[in-house]
Design brief:
198 residues; mainly alpha; 3-stranded antiparallel beta sheet; 3 strands; 66% helix
């Protein structure tokens, strides 16, 4: 009964939760909390970030709710590890979530508000904003470079991909397209800001 209530509570949560990202990752490949955290750093984190501590806390709760099964794995010369896989209840939860309609995400973009607010600042303030936009742009450029390097590493032969790889690749291509769009917009912003005080 408690697990059923936990499952109902999880299903009420709006939108995607860390639990869903973990279920997808563990269906792609079972693993330990450490291995899962590494996957988040390497690929899933492109679209859903979580700290190691958050991942371990959620894994424990998902196991208690019956969403995951765990087994102890002996490791020579190292402490044993717990390897997680998705239990039937977890797969049911994920299937239900996959079939739920996706609501458009509300966008809260602090930089966009600052750009609009630049109309109420002077040239010195706009110079500060230009430097911030340049910094912001550099982070997106680094993200794009990381995505492109990951694409070369993970999908070198795009013609020979299985279903799972094809879906992973299309999500990555979405990230690449998004970062290119943001960089184009930031270039437009910089050109506009620099032209204001001429």
């Amino acid at each position: 009964m408690i697990c059923l209530l936990c499952n109902e509570l999880h299903s009420i949560m709006a939108g995607m939760a860390l639990e869903h990202a973990i279920l997808v990752s563990l269906l792609e490949q079972p693993g330990s909390g450490y291995e899962l955290a590494r996957r988040f750093e390497r690929s899933i984190g492109r679209f859903w970030t979580a700290t190691h501590q958050q991942i371990y806390r959620v894994l424990k709760r998902m196991e208690a709710d019956g969403w995951l099964a765990a087994e102890e794995v002996d490791q020579d010369g190292r402490p044993d590890k717990r390897s997680y896989s998705v239990a039937p209840t977890g797969r049911d939860v994920l299937t239900a979530w996959l079939r739920d309609p996706v609501q458009p995400e509300a966008v809260r973009h602090e930089l966009a508000v600052k750009i609009r607010g630049a109309a109420f600042d002077d040239a010195d303030g706009r110079a500060v904003l230009i430097a911030e936009v340049e910094r912001y742009r550099a982070t997106h450029e680094a993200t794009l470079e990381g995505y492109l390097a990951g694409e070369l590493r993970d999908f070198p032969g795009a013609g020979a991909l299985d279903t799972q790889q094809r879906l992973q690749h299309v999500v990555l291509r979405g990230g690449i397209t998004y970062e290119r769009m943001v960089l184009d917009w930031l270039d437009d912003v910089l050109e506009t800001l620099r032209g204001l005080d001429r």
